[in-house]
Design brief:
By secondary structure, this protein is α/β, with parallel strands linked by helices. The chain contains 8 helices and 8 strands. The two termini are about 30 Å apart.
Length: about 200
């Protein structure tokens, strides 16, 4: 079992590929699949795993579950090449390029109120009394869309359940688990648990 301390600063997801590299170097095993929690499922990680030289990695991670999935951005059909989304009711708009405060570019779209007010989902979809409904396309959108579609399949659910059932079995694993239950190691006495905080 491989354990390591990582800084509490930033997102856990930024440590994914370095952890894969350490695991491969220390075990001699080529990682083909990673089972991880939602903190690792960014579009950047999905692309990096899919485009990894020599051996792509199948990153298995859950998506955020929206409180109202019928009007969530994940159900908008987004065409990254045309830079245009279409809402579930068929309204299509074009977007403008914006810059995130952390220097990440994205596309922003505004759905006009006068086009949306007749929609039966208007009250749930547009929360502002004056502004329009907005939507955004982030970098790596195609990877995020593909992962969203994959999550609707029974195969994904069966695959992700391996993360909670994983235990000592084979010496020829080709997958790794990020942040699995601590009891795996502490129950058998094979690892210690430590937390690191910046001073």
């Amino acid at each position: 079992m491989h354990t390591t301390d990582i800084t509490a600063a930033g997102s856990d997801g930024q440590h994914l590929l370095p952890a894969v590299q350490r695991t491969e170097a220390e075990t001699g095993v080529t990682v083909e699949r990673v089972l991880a929690d939602g903190a690792y499922g960014s579009g950047q990680n999905l692309e990096a795993c899919a485009q990894r030289p020599d051996q792509p990695i199948d990153l298995v991670t859950p998506c955020h579950r929206p409180t109202d999935p019928e009007i969530h951005e994940s159900v908008f059909h987004i065409d990254p090449e045309a830079k245009a989304p279409t809402c579930p009711q068929g309204i299509r708009v074009s977007g403008k390029e914006r810059q995130h405060r952390q220097s990440r570019p994205f596309l922003e779209f505004l759905f006009r109120r006068d086009c949306c007010e007749a929609c039966p989902l208007f009250a749930r979809c547009v929360h502002s009394k004056r502004r329009e409904r907005s939507a955004r396309i982030w970098p790596h959108e195609t990877y995020l869309q593909a992962e969203e579609e994959r999550h609707q399949t029974a195969g994904f659910l069966a695959l992700y359940r391996q993360r909670s059932r994983w235990g000592a079995s084979s010496a020829s694993w080709s997958f790794m688990v990020c942040e699995g239950p601590v009891t795996w190691g502490t129950r058998s006495g094979s690892c210690n648990v430590s937390r690191w905080r910046p001073s």
